[in-house]
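Lab notebook, bench 4. Still working through the backlog of constructs that have no structural model yet. Next entry is a single chain of 278 residues. Request: give me the structure tokens for it.
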Amino acid sequence: MISMCSRTMKTTAVGAVIALLMPLAAEAHKGWIEPSKTVLAVGQWVTFDAATSTDPFIKDHNPLRLDNLLITAPDGSTVQPENAATGKLRSVFDLQLTQAGTYKIAVLNSGTMASWDDNGQTRRWPPRGQPFTAEGFAKEVPAKAKDLKVSQSIGRLETYVTAGKPSDGACKPSGKGLELVPVTAFNDLYAGEAAVFQLLIDGKPAKSVDVEVIADRRQYRDAVDAIELKSDDKGQLSIQWPSPGLYWLSASVTDSKADKPAKERRSSYTGIFEVLAP
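Model written out:
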């Protein structure tokens, strides 16, 4: 059985495989949510920065919009952020940990997009910020549009903070799209130890999925030095953390399980984790 947000016994590596991460490397900018701290006491405050950038944790591109921010408390209830604001390069918000246990802080994005060739020009619908509807699709997209492509996307960007002892309530998977659940607790990660996570797609093990892990402080290194892994037949992957700090983890899956009229679905997951000194 998978333990959601609670610490299990130390586990050995499950044979993570080095792999070239083609889809993720092609993405121009990476979204991230950076907590000021991830292990705290009940009643304490934590503050967050959120942005998109070429490399994680570097505030040099755009703020992350907080319209779809969802904070789940240890008891499963929804908590509102405080002091939320969006600037030129980052968004910020605060959270007081009034309950004991693990909180999930997530930005959830989903939608469907149609594109087609219109006399040599690429047309897209719906416009940015507008929802996709069957009625609008039938009205705005030509029935015999040339090179019509309709794709669906489901994206999750998450981080986790814990007050006191880790708990399971906020970390239960929804069963929709690509998700990550802990075997090793999300807020119980230490440099020099192997952490084991499990990837799920629609609630089932996501096998042979490429995963990229990037450490913070990229601006002080000559290279990205990404850790590239592949999930095993159980959807599990093992990460040996080389040093303390924040880490950005990302994976994506493309399949044909889209809602009509889309024919292709891309599910992505990005998680931010703090690794502590032993």
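Notes after review: The radius of gyration is 19 Å. Residues 6-27 have pLDDT under 50 and may be disordered. Flag for follow-up if needed.
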